[in-house]
Design brief:
By secondary structure, the protein is mainly beta. It has 1 helix and 11 strands. It is globular, with a radius of gyration of 14 Å. A hairpin with a 4-residue loop joins strand 7 (about 70-75) and strand 8 (about 80-85). The protein is about 5% helix and about 50% strand. The strands form 2 sheets. Strands 2, 4, 5, 6, 9, 10 and 11 form a 7-stranded mixed sheet that branches. A 4-stranded antiparallel sheet has the order 1-3-8-7, with no helix packed on it.
Length: about 130
């Protein structure tokens, strides 16, 4: 069974940090481009970051650049999102998604892709940042 499982969310004060994890089972993350998305209440799902594991290239939403870092641990088949200097506007459910490793990084170079093009999604993890 193909599955993505996120963890690491929680409640944190503004300025704090969290590290989200996305672990895959049933497939190898090396075969996909992995992205993090978030969805705030009443809003659509928005791309936050992507890692192209073929060459290590990373992409970020402008509002998180310099605060968030995406990385991968091949041995654990896991992708991480380190989030520092969190702000109340970062409050959302965070999802990881896996998709075509040739197509998705190309799109990300111009901005986050539409969520519909991804093949697999996790169940999400809640991040709440208090002011």
């Amino acid at each position: 069974e193909v599955k993505l499982v996120e963890s690491g969310g929680g409640l944190v004060q503004a300025g704090g940090s969290l590290r989200l994890s996305c672990t895959a089972s049933g497939f190898t993350l090396d075969d996909y481009a992995i992205s993090w998305y978030r969805q705030a209440p009443g809003k659509g799902r928005l791309g936050v970051s992507c890692i192209n594991k073929s060459d290590g290239t990373t992409y970020y939403l402008d509002s998180v650049k310099g605060r968030f870092t995406i990385s991968a641990d091949n041995a654990k088949n896991t992708v991480y999102l380190q989030m520092n200097d969190l702000k109340p506007e970062d409050t959302a459910v965070y999802y990881c998604a896996a998709g075509d490793k040739r197509l998705i990084p190309t799109i990300w170079s111009a901005g986050p892709p539409r969520p519909e093009i991804f093949d697999y999604w996790g169940q999400g993890t809640q991040v709440t940042v208090s002011s």
